[in-house]
Amino acid sequence: MGNSPEMKLAVVGATGMVGSVLLKLLEERNFPIKELIPVASQTSVGRELLFRGKLHKIISLEDAVRAKPDIAIFSAGGETSLEWAPKFAEVGTTVIDNSSAWRMDPTKKLIIPEINAHILTKEDKIIANPNCSSIQLVMALAPLHKAYKMKRVVVSTYQSVSGTGVKAVQQLENEIAGQRGEMAYPYPIHKNALPHCDSFEENGYTKEEMKLAREPQKILDDRTFSVSATAVRIPTAGGHSEAVNVEFREDFNLRDVRRILHATPGVTLQDNPETNTYPMPIYANNKDDVFVGRIRRDETQPNTMNLWVVSDNLRKGAATNTIQIAEYLMNHGLV
Known about the structure:
The protein is of the alpha/beta class. It is built from ten helices and 14 strands.
């Protein structure tokens, strides 16, 4: 569509948890839309949803492909993305995919706009959005890696139930209310912590942990550092937190570290123990930045620090990042 100021935009998975946040953010950010094409599963086709004061009819994937949108944002799971993203790409649509389907495909780019959007071209018809936990980790570490060169990262996550989806949020709400209901997890989540995010792989790590190990290297196009992760699901409704221990090849001054993070677009520094100022999910809720605090030197080994990183997983971890990719494509004439 060249440099036309308005988009024909499809949202695949429009009725899901991330899809609803996407629609809300498209309104908030005043994204230039000529035509919105909401897409969902067959059970939702024909229903209507409200966007910018108008009702829009939900259509099928087949009809959406025929409509040839300029951009299609996918938030409908990996299987849907693997089957349908290429069909959209074939008709000239640029797909931005929120699932894990294409992230580690060597022919697809894995994008955090503040870090590596400059590698995108018009030829990129399927673009992968990183895992929510990877996005907030890399947002915090990328500027420090540039300054001090990371060697090894050990990260433990404290992830909200919203990362699993509507069913998990409902499980937590049911358990708080003392009601029986459908279980998203193999155990109760209320008053509990599950060291089990996604399914287990043969090496004993979960898929979520391996995403954290692999995705940062691809985003930063750098295999000189390693990431070891433990991912834990906790009974919070929204917002992921990460305890990060990072060893650098070069030494650092904590004052410089705070200055670098404070100057990083998309990062908010919250780091003052004297006033109990530190990032929390309750504060990150409905915000787009990644919040960093509890910055301190690891006194057990050289060139190593600890950080606490928090972000709204449905916004910057999913919806905001995909819309930022779409904005970059539009602003640079890549669609």
